[in-house]
Design brief:
Oligomer: single chain
Largest sheet: 6 strands, mixed
Low-confidence stretches: 1-77
Shape: globular
Radius of gyration: 20 Å
Distance between the termini: 43 Å
Length: 444
């Protein structure tokens, strides 16, 4: 995962006692007027300035290592709600080893080994200390953990993971036309979708057999799209001297504009892929939104902004969260259109934004260290964030916290295994994915 940053004058990091968003537990369905209001806010000078200072987005890139061990036993026996397979598309939030097998190279070769995977016996290609949300979900469904598509010796009876760390919603050519380069992988959502079609052609004999298989499957379309924006910001990063000069501000303005222009295209790519899957016979599809990026340690550390106006009432970077919500608003509109076209299918919106906020709000009750909500467990630099892009997790000088199970952020970018488990529970057992894509039996 490559970082882009500019230097700020040395100062003590801001520590925010509580990070969150002042909003209800569940996101409402935004109206067209509200969407226009969001877009209008994003163009106002003071909001744009805040956005310029919040452009240091993490480019989610290579987290790869040795092949994964044999999957652990599923939690239950038999199937849950008739689901016998999962097909997953996405990026590093759900990649279980595809980038590893692509042979990715980059500035972060130390991510190929421990401490990544330390909670599950070794690094496997997962960008965490252990299991990801997709792992917890598959086990909740009584299924074995998903193998990456590029593991050609794997058993794909119960589904396939097509996600690749660093992947984009738009393909490299589309981004290149806007002057945006894709540095880590060309396995975009379109490529992953083609892999899915190739897999189905190789394992079935007819379109009807595909439909029958998909009728018993859960299809996860994302999270994906964040890297499209990150690469746009990267293409317009400030000059190396890091000064907030007129030149650097101009470059950052360009990055903001290019990223905002990409939002409708990214959303169309995601909903377009979902439409193709629904046409092929998918009956239960989950489409996640973006996290509240302004509450993530790496972004907070990169900006480390002095001006209180750049933060909301909960200490998060307001403009960055606004940007994430612009994506989410348009994505939810696209999902509503899909529901109208496919009334017999269950098309769920997985609200990563407010599930993450809920996890932050209830951190103490959930067993997280309330004083380290903005700090990476594995990293360097100390302070409120413990994140230094020059000494990221696994690099010389980086350390691992004593109790990863009490932290939300693993490396300043990705979640710990514990946080991934909490997010999965919130999404699929506590209503943050709606309508419910899976009906789990009530605990006795």
């Amino acid at each position: 995962m490559m970082m882009v940053a500019f230097s700020c004058p040395n100062k003590s990091p801001r520590r925010h006692p509580q990070i969150g968003i002042a909003s209800p537990r569940r996101s409402h369905k935004p109206t067209a007027l509200e969407l226009l209001h969001l877009l209008d806010m994003a163009t106002k000078p003071h909001v744009l300035l805040a956005a310029l200072l919040a452009l240091l987005l993490v480019v989610v890139g290579p987290c790869h290592a040795r092949p994964a061990p044999q999957p652990t036993a599923a939690r239950g026996q038999g199937t849950v709600d008739g689901i016998t397979a999962i097909y997953n598309f996405g990026d590093s939030l759900s990649d279980t080893g595809n980038l590893l097998r692509e042979g990715a190279a980059g500035m972060l070769q130390h991510t190929t080994g421990l401490p990544y995977g330390s909670a599950i016996g070794g690094a496997t290609g997962r960008c965490s200390d252990g299991h990801l949300m997709i792992d917890f979900l598959t086990r909740d469904l009584g299924l074995p953990l998903l193998s990456p598509y590029l593991d050609k010796g794997a058993d794909f009876t119960h589904g396939v993971n097509f996600a690749v760390a660093g992947a984009t919603a738009l393909d490299a050519a589309a981004l290149a036309r806007r002057g945006v380069a894709v540095p880590h992988t060309n396995s975009s959502l379109a490529v992953q979708l083609q892999w899915f079609k190739d897999h189905m052609s190789a394992t079935t004999k007819s379109p009807q057999e595909i439909r029958d298989k998909l009728a018993r499957s859960l299809v996860m379309v994302g999270e994906i799209g964040g890297n499209d924006y990150n690469y746009a910001f990267t293409a317009n990063r400030p000059a190396p001297d890091g000064e907030r000069s007129f030149y650097n501000v101009g470059r950052m303005v360009t990055g903001v504009v290019e990223a905002m222009v990409l939002v409708p295209e990214v959303v169309r790519s995601i909903t377009g892929a979902a439409r193709e899957l629904l046409d092929m016979g998918a009956t239960r599809v989950v489409i996640p939104g973006n996290f509240p990026l302004g509450c993530v340690p790496s972004y907070l550390a990169a900006v480390d902004e002095r001006d209180p106006a750049a933060y909301d009432g909960n200490g998060c970077l307001a403009a960055l969260n606004l940007f994430a919500q612009m994506h989410n608003v348009l994505l939810q509109q696209g999902i509503r259109e899909l529901r109208a076209s496919y009334p017999d299918a269950t098309i769920a919106y997985a609200d990563y934004f407010y599930a993450y906020v809920q996890m932050l709000r209830d951190a103490g009750k959930m067993g997280f260290d309330g004083g380290s909500l903005t700090a990476a467990c594995c990293g360097a630099g100390g302070g409120a964030y413990n994140f230094d892009m020059e000494r990221m997790c696994g690099a010389a000088g980086a350390t691992v916290c004593a109790r990863p199970e009490e932290r939300i952020s693993w490396d300043g970018v990705h979640l710990t295994q514990r946080a991934n488990g909490v997010m999965t529970d919130l999404l699929y057992h506590r209503g943050f994915a709606s309508p419910a894509p899976v009906h789990f039996p009530r605990a006795t």
